[in-house]
Specification:
Rossmann fold, globular, binds S-adenosylmethionine, 7-stranded mixed beta sheet, 40% helix, alpha/beta
Length: 199
């Protein structure tokens, strides 16, 4: 753990986030993906799954325009954002319960982003299986809550199920691709799948 903290302190994106008073270095991952693929538009309604501590939400709300974000996380969020942010403290495994709330609110999003990640155990197979479960649950939200033409971005720890997840996403979108932004540790198994224009 000590080594992890030492490495993080030396990390370019960590230092940049500190210098620019950003919540997390993850901010730069979404920024890079968005600059390349323009997924966050002016006034986009965004669902941010696994939003804590809030780096991605901060990026969306910082961007010029009147974007709004609904965030979900199993942890409470400390950062106070403006009124364009609504937070739900839910475990994603309670998918039915979250869906009921979202239906009652008539939510329909332009973009769904999910940087959700399980607590890692050190057992690669277990971590990948847990990651797949969370990525797949995130994908379940597109059916009822993502507009036609909308965008979907989801993290996954690469494993034997990743290609299956990719195929399922590809089927629902006009275009799908893998993305690995520079701020994502080269050595980590983390990869993002991006679905462009929901069919
Ligand atoms: C890598 S962090 C997300 C970082 C965030 N995108 C940012 O920019 O600050 C992953 C998040 O997934 C959340 N998470 C993990 N398991 C979850 C679950 N079952 N339900 C909801 N959130 C979960 C964690 O609490 C954590 O906040």
């Amino acid at each position: 753990m000590k080594q992890w903290y030492k490495n993080r302190k030396k990390d370019h994106f960590y230092q940049l986030a500190q210098k620019n008073d950003l919540i997390s270095r993850a901010y730069y991952k979404l920024e890079e993906i968005d600059k390349k693929h323009q997924i966050i538009k002016k006034s986009s309604k965004v669902l941010d799954i696994g939003c804590c501590p809030g780096g991605w939400t901060q990026y969306v709300l910082n961007k010029s325009g009147n974007q709004s974000v609904v965030g979900v996380d199993i942890l409470p969020i400390e950062k106070k954002f403006n009124d364009n942010f609504i937070f739900y403290n839910f475990d994603l495994n309670e998918f039915e319960k979250i869906s009921e709330v979202f239906i009652s609110k008539n939510y329909c999003f332009d973009v769904i982003i999910s940087d959700i990640a399980p607590n890692t155990s050190g057992n690669q197979f277990l971590d990948q299986a847990n990651s797949y479960n969370l990525s797949f649950l995130s994908f379940q939200f597109i059916k009822s809550f993502l507009k036609k033409g909308g965008f979907f971005l989801v993290k996954n720890f690469q494993g034997e199920d990743t290609e299956q997840l990719f195929k399922e996403i590809k089927f629902q979108f006009n275009k799908a691709m893998y993305v690995k932004p520079n701020a994502s540790d080269k050595k980590s198994k983390e990869i993002y799948i991006l679905g462009l224009e929901k069919k």
